[in-house]
Amino acid sequence: VQCSPDGVYAFCGQYLNTATIFHLGSGEKLATVTSEFSSGFVKFLLILDTAQEMVMVDNEGSLSVWNTEEIANPQLTDDFDCRREDSEVVSIELSEDQSAILICKALSIELLDTHVWKVA
Asked: What InterPro entries is this protein classified in (predicted)?
């Protein structure tokens, strides 16, 4: 679970690589999104407030990026199928300026540039 920086929304990761967005004041469910690349579960969620994006990373290493400018209707902007035998995600870290995401996997490390969504 991640909250928006302003504390208005909660982003909840679930099974089948699905995330649901709730309004914290009313408890209303605003949207549910699903990545088609995975049958796993959302292991990490990142909220990039500078770009109005939500990043879902699943247990198999796949990553999807959602534009959340229209919070009740998020749009998929990028979906990366990163499944490999050695791709179990152990941890992730967002840089302070939100320009890069470090993805630590069981046997490798990847650094993604969040401006172009490419491996740096």
From this structure: WD40/YVTN_repeat-like_dom_sf, WD40_repeat_dom_sf
- Write the pLDDT tens digit of every residue in 72-106: 999 999 887 766 666 678 899 999 999 999 988 88
Q: How far apart are CA 68 and CA 87, in angstroms?
A: 27
The total of structural domains in the chain comes to: 1
Domain encompassing residue 111: 2-119
Q: Using an 8 Å Cβ cutoff, are 10 and 1 in contact?
A: yes
As a whole number of angstroms, the distance between CA 63 and CA 61 comes to: 7
- Entry pTM: 0.85
Euclidean distance between CA atoms 68 and 44, whole angstroms: 17
- Residue 93: which CATH number? 2.130.10.10
